[in-house]
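Hey team,

Sharing the Polyphosphate polymerase domain-containing protein run so nobody has to redo it. Sequence (264 residues) first:
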Amino acid sequence: MIPAVRALARAAMAARPVPLADVQARAELLARFDRSYLVPVEVFAAFAAELTDHRRPGGPFAALCINGRRWFRYHSVHYDTPDLRSFHDHRQDRRLRYKIRERLYEDTGERQFEIKLKGRHGETVKHRRPLLPGDAALGAASRGFLASVLDRRYGLAAPTELTRSIETDYIRATFVADGQRVTCDAALECRDPATGRTVRADGGLVLVEIKTTGRLTAADRLLHGHGLWPAEFTKYCGALAALRPDLSADHWRRAVRTAFPAAA
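Structure output:
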């Protein structure tokens, strides 16, 4: 087993389980601030133990549990224009920027079409609609939804031509407390449909993403105490930079080298 997956599974099994309904009630966070950390497994094990300790001030974080499972397989397909407008908008830190993806929760079969926007204060705002069996991710309903969201929130027209830019697979465990959610991802594998090239993240790293309505959390402080600080990294932009080294991606270069050392 990949070391990061083993550490993630141990952390999830050590925590108190909580059902999906409770996670959605306590910390659904469709509008939130995100911070990403690239955490070595040794540090992650200590961090997770502190996070889920029943003696923790404010109470321990619990682990999402669905049908007895506490870690889950995710598959995402990201869409962009042929000239990678979304990627370059994020690279240039444009105020009006967005990502488009289809997400499959492999263990339940649920599919979602999602649009992630940046709010005026730098927060991430997610809009999503379920995809039924047989629905095309970029069918008429999804394209209408995309056009409505971009017009309503940004006053922008939706791009007419979209293609698959990358596909990602990973394993995730989620820890939650009131108003806070910590997602922990391992075994990240990314593919470029255009070239067939694949990159895999360092098996000794866990990608920790802290999602909250506030600016700084107890989870952030725990990681700071271990000498870790937020990384300039997202799965979409980081993976695309690793898969296509000809792209200008200085913004993420250091994090990409850490996350995908073989590609670097």
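The domain at 3-259 is CATH 2.40.320.10 (Hypothetical Protein Pfu-838710-001).

Ping me if you want the raw files.
A.
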